[in-house]
Amino acid sequence: MAEQKFEQISQPRLLLRRLHGVMAGDGSAQVRLDKLVREIAQNMVAEVCSIYLTRAGGVLELFATEGLKEEAVHLTRLQIGEGLVGLVAERGSPLNLTEAPKHPRFVFRPETGEEIYHSFLGVPILRTGRVVGVLVVQNVSSREYKPEEVEALQTISMVLAELVGSGGVVDKNELSEDASASGSPITLDGVKLSDGVAEGVAVFHQPQIVVTRTVADSVEEESIKLDDALTTMQKHLEEMLSHPDLAHGGEHREVLETYRMFAYDRGWQRKMREAVQQGLTAEAAVDRVQQENRVRMAKIRDPYLRERINDFEELTSRLIRIIQGNTGDEHETLTKDSILITRSVGPAELMDYDRTFLKGIVMEEGSSTAHVVIIARAMGIAVLGRVAGALQHTQSGDRVIIDTGSEHAYIRPGDDIVETYRTTIKLRTRRLEEYAAERNLDAITRDGNRITLLMNAGLLVDLPSLDSTGAEGIGLFRTEFQFMVAPALPRVSEQERIYRAALDAAGDRQVVFRTLDIGGDKQVPFLPRDENEENPAMGWRAIRIALDRPALLRFQLRAMLYAASGRPLHVMFPMIAEIAELKRVKKILAKEIERLNQFNRIPPTEIKVGCMLEVPSLSWQLNLLMEEVDFLSIGTNDLMQFFFACDRGNPRLGDRYDLLAPPVLSFLHNIIVTCDHAGVPVTLCGEMGGRPLEALALVGLGMKRLSISPTAVGPVKRMIRSTNLERLHAFMMMRMRSAQHSIRDSLIDFARDHNIKL
Ligand code: PEP
Ligand code: MG
Q1: Which of 1, 192, 270, 355 has the most CB atoms in a 10 Å sphere around its CB?
Q2: Ligand 1 pocket mutation, candidates 477, 614, 639, 671, criterion most atoms within 8 A of CB
Q3: 445-753, which class in CATH?
Q4: DSSP label at 304?
Q5: Chain segment 308-339, per-residue pLDDT in tens
């Protein structure tokens, strides 16, 4: 039996032809479906083969079966997510079980008589990324289906998708209307990836990619088509990369370089060629391999690697478009406020959309470290990620509201929800306009104390915010972002270009470059994550990597020195835990400065060296530290999780400690006073400083410099301009010594009593 199976599966081309013949043959759709399940069951040596198709309302209906009881056809119906078939539809990936009845999601449907079948293999029938049905084979014996059998069934399901898509089986309207997308409102949960509230019409990122031909008439012709398309795609990428606009580097170039690396990937090309050899058309082969990639991706835990698959997704779409003779890389042109609905979107694609109309993205995948998310954040586009069923439940043109605060996407929301959010969005927009109008005002308190408001940045797309927010400079340039979006370690010349662009954009304003803070949750392609690290935030990261791999640090410092030639350079080091560490990196810097002389390079006019205070141990060397640095920057994001010994990623601890707790305030106050006495400028650059109430507390403690996200500059400046520092300071000095859990409530009362704008 096993031999017979192998022999038959090794002839996939013939099977595909036969299935295609059945589909194109005579008889009603039902007759053809019945023939198909018989053919598939026989070929897969399975006792059961069943086809379930999705009907309106998100119901999977048994449409044809070989092996199950006939009376169950059109009677057995399962919701998406219900039973094993529903689970395949929900996940959009295969399910291969040796003991199906023991699976916790197994539901017993007596009319089918399936309880006697032990093994189960189900694959989704996918069309334009949506599940339109599920194809199942079952056997009495408790066997495990081999990977090549899973693949064979997936290939067959592609052919079935073609039949379903042609509208001959389920009414086409029902299909395109789909499932739950038939008008009723639905709320989907997701994860906040980029902050915001947005409303718009649903636009599918890839509406036009429909694989219409799956079975090849001539394998030779399809092979040539695939090879030609690959060559064309590679040529496009080379042309785009040689475009003069990209000559100066930047995110766009780096993204394209990542694609170039993938476009030449031999393993990927080989798999697609094999799929053509099995009898698929070139376009179906590309789609087929991508389906496999997605399934594999679902098993990968490393977020960085998972995101790389998304880059493949973008490349795949391009390739299919080329095969279909649609060489333009155009997206739907946005003409009104829109929310992009997609499994994923590549960063280059995102930058192609019209920023005026693109208000938000709902993604089925995505992680906070994804390139596209880093860029969306910098562009101020709201992103809700990991929204299961987004494609399934949404129709092009549907009204969609995203609220990343509640982590909901409202699809076709009712009037009450629309009204509420429209008011919120209007208020936000009006406030943004007001902040923009106030950008040239000084951040000065009512009693005349100046506070310096700087912004945090990391990408070239951040730089225009310097002018639009009126920030007085960049207090933290996170250089690692550039490394995170690059396909490989950026060369010194590339790094130099980016640093120079930041300095050019800033003009006379200060830019503080922080050397690489990689490791932990910030993954870069050239340094694989150590899966064994139990606590990456306290692991091999930032300056620890730099000291163990000094070449990396040396090249980065060199690039900064070159970029700042003839103007001031501010450089600081992350995660310094003790002065001895700082001294070691300063020595490396000194050598690089010396090297400038040897090579007759013009040095910066002055070099100011600082460090981050984000590891508590360093605060017990503050007095000595004052002699070693020109400035200090407090990184509360890291510092506070170590201060309270409280993992900020742990949801059970989310509200346990408050940053407005007396011990935090006393601790920060001590740092501020020490720096003031020593005449060393101190800035706070953690997220804390960007929240008006927290910023109020910090200013009250004597903090005079805050480096915050660009969107926070307006609100914090407004708060400062409405505050009397003398009164606030007296209040903070008193509260700081209290035994309260937090001073939050009393500070809110204080702000209200003194008309402070929060
Ligand atoms: C911090 O830890 O507060 C900080 C600013 O650094 P990052 O958020 O980049 O770790
Ligand atoms: Mg930090």
Answers
A1: 192
A2: 614
A3: alpha beta
A4: H
A5: 666 677 778 888 888 988 755 556 788 899 99
